[in-house]
Specification:
Blueprint lengths: L1 H13 L1 H21 L1 H9 L2 H27 L1 E4 L2 H12 L6 E5 L7 H8 L5 E7 L9 H21 L7 E6 L5 E6 L3 E6 L1 E4 L6 E4 L5 E5 L6 H17 L1 E4 L4 E3 L12
Parallel strand pairs: 2-3, 3-4
Antiparallel strand pairs: 1-9, 2-5, 4-10, 5-6, 6-9, 7-8, 10-11
Length: 267
C-alpha cells in the first residue's frame, strides 16, 4: 500500500499542471453547457452542485500543493547510513522512474550490481559505469575485492547473455586514481552521492579503505540549492571517464588503446 501511495503521489507531482488544467476544463465545460441548457443549470443550482464543485476544486488545489510541498521537503535532500540502505532506496525509485541516462561511479561492481540489474530492465536506459582498477584495492583486502568484483561482473554478463537487448545498454570503464567520490546519477533528476575514507591500520601500518559503510546523501535537482553538487559530480565523472580504460565484459579485461563509443542519447 505504501508503494502504491508513493507511485500515486509521484504521478500527481509530475502531472500537477495537466491535472489542474483538466479539472478546470471540466468545470468550464459544465458551466458552458449549463448556460445553454436551462434545465441542467436549474438542477445544478437547485442541488448546490456549483458550490460543491467550487469547494472540491479549491480543496483539490490545496491538496496538490500540500503533496508537492511534502515531496519537495522530503526528497530534495536526505541521508542514508550505508550503501545497502541507499541502494534499496534507489531501487524503490526505479520502480516508478525510468531514466534515460545513468552514470555510476563506484569502487567495486559488487555493491552496485543490484541497481545495474534493475536498470537493465529499463529498455531505453543507457548506463555508464566507472570502476576502480584492481591495483587500487588495499593489499590487505585485494584478493577479497577481486573475487567479489569478478563474480558480480560475471553475474551482469550472464543477464546480458540471456537478453541481447541489454548488450548496448551498459558501458564500463576502469579508472586508476585513488578512490574518493562515488555515486549514482539518474538523468539530471536524482543523485546518490558519498565518499571513500582512507585510514591506516595501527597494527601493521597498512592502508584501509572504507566506503560501503559510510553515509550517502540523496539529492534532487528540484531544488536550486542542490545544483552545485550535481555539477561537481558531472564534472568529476566526465574527467575520470575521459581518461579511464575501456572494460570488455565478454573478455573480462581492459582494452588497451581503445575508446568506448559514447551514447547518442538526449535526456
Amino acid at each position: 500500500m505504501k508503494n502504491f501511495m508513493l507511485k500515486l503521489e509521484r504521478i500527481i507531482e509530475m502531472n500537477i499542471n495537466a491535472l489542474t488544467v483538466t479539472a478546470a476544463i471540466i468545470i468550464a465545460v459544465t458551466f458552458f453547457v449549463a448556460r445553454l441548457y436551462a434545465p441542467l443549470d436549474t438542477w445544478l443550482t437547485t442541488h448546490h452542485v456549483w458550490s460543491l464543485l467550487a469547494i472540491a476544486f479549491f480543496m483539490y488545489v490545496i491538496r496538490m500543493l500540500g503533496i508537492i510541498g511534502q515531496r519537495i521537503k522530503g526528497d530534495c535532500l536526505s541521508a542514508f547510513p550505508d550503501q545497502d540502505t541507499s541502494n534499496k532506496e534507489v531501487e524503490k525509485l526505479l520502480q516508478y522512474y525510468t531514466p534515460k541516462r545513468v552514470d555510476i561511479f563506484a569502487y567495486s561492481s559488487f555493491t552496485v550490481t543490484p541497481v545495474i540489474l534493475a536498470l537493465l530492465k529499463k529498455k531505453e536506459c543507457k548506463i555508464r559505469l566507472l570502476l576502480a582498477d584492481c591495483s587500487l584495492f588495499p593489499e590487505k583486502e585485494c584478493d577479497f575485492h577481486k573475487e567479489r568484483q569478478g563474480s558480480s561482473l560475471s553475474n551482469i554478463r550472464i543477464h546480458i547473455e540471456k537478453n541481447k537487448d541489454y548488450a548496448d545498454m551498459l558501458k564500463i570503464k576502469i579508472y586508476n586514481l585513488r578512490p574518493s567520490l562515488r555515486g549514482i546519477k539518474l538523468d539530471d533528476y536524482f543523485l546518490s552521492m558519498g565518499w571513500y575514507l582512507h585510514t591506516i591500520d595501527k597494527s601493521d601500518s597498512k592502508e584501509i579503505l572504507r566506503g560501503h559503510c559510510n553515509p550517502l546523501i540523496h539529492l534532487k535537482k528540484t531544488s536550486s540549492e542542490n545544483v552545485p553538487l550535481f555539477e561537481m559530480f558531472d564534472d568529476y565523472f566526465t574527467k575520470i571517464w575521459s581518461t579511464a580504460g575501456v572494460y570488455d565484459i565478454w573478455q573480462a579485461k581492459v582494452l588497451d588503446g581503445e575508446e568506448s563509443e559514447e551514447f547518442a542519447v538526449k535526456v
